[in-house]
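okkk here we go again. third time trying to get the zinc ion bound version out, last two times i messed up the smiles copy paste (missing a bracket lol). double checked this time i swear
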Amino acid sequence: MRAAMLHDFTRGPVLEDVTVSAPRAGEVLVRIAASGVCGSDVHAVHGKANVLKNMPMVLGHEGAGVIEEVGEGITDLKRGDPVVIAMYGPCGLCGTCSSGKLHFCEGPEMRSVYGEMPDGSTRLSLNGTPAYPFVGVGSMAEYAVVRRSMIVKVKPDLPLDTLCITACALTTGLGAVFNVADVRPGATVAVIGCGGVGMSVIQGARIAGATRVIAIDRNPAKLDLAANLGATHCLTASDDGAENIAAVKQIVPRGVDYAFEVVGSKALIQQGLAMTARGGAVVMIGVVPWGEDIAVNAGLMFDRRLLGCLGGHNIPGREIPRIIDLYQSGRLKLDELVGHKYPLTDIREAFANAEKAEDIRTVVTIDPRLL
Ligand SMILES: [Zn+2]
Ligand SMILES: [Zn+2]
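finally!!
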């Protein structure tokens, strides 16, 4: 099959012929219809993702498609079922899963973040040597083999080249609002960084009933869209952090209840803390390199919280159907987030477009017969 491969951090993605083996027990083979290009894919191309252990790698982790083949033991899915591939699939059996915290699963299933099956194997190979799917998905390819627990069956007749973005941008952004912060009606919110995830935070805050949703970004076009999606105030980001903090406090003098940092910048996390009211919280969604330390003001931390956010603490079978219901009921906008679409053969152009970061989501269309 054709797949967008990454071999190193200088040459960018290349289209190659990759061998995919049959799904084993508990696994499924998905024929991919479309894949979003997430900021993390772009970071991976530049060697800036935290999970780049195994190379070469098939890019993509926002995939939707149809079931092509099911492995032994799977009776609830059949060929042709439309599905979204979730970024991870908890084991359901380990101590943390049993305590209800499935998003912190400690089972070997979590090896999928490095592109491995629980036993360390992979179903992909390139010229006889193993290849690995990015975060266990590898959706910029004609097919993907994933475990059943990563599959969310969706209603038929929905556009798979839109639904694909629910796999990461939407689950992370909405999960940060609903699961991590638990934003309640009447809350005040600032969102620092208005890409795909930030826009999802804005929509989540609107749906949760926040009365002030302050969008902060450098790009005026993104602020226009943020207003369309539910931001009540839009601020053009300044290089001077004190100006950003003062601008937020002009709108909410005591500070916001929640600041969501969606860039992955230590300086912006510090600004978020200074924008936050006593009793409030900063949710760190943007990914700071894992080896680095973040300095925080002890006086601010005395009565505020800094919350980590692992992909929105989402449980795939709960989050993705909820997102699709909100979309179908008109309360969540998805079509507005999808920008240019490129066929898989134009993978390099797709990444160049994503790199410009003008579109909220660039989408790679892989099988037009499924769209
Ligand atoms: Zn992503
Ligand atoms: Zn588990």
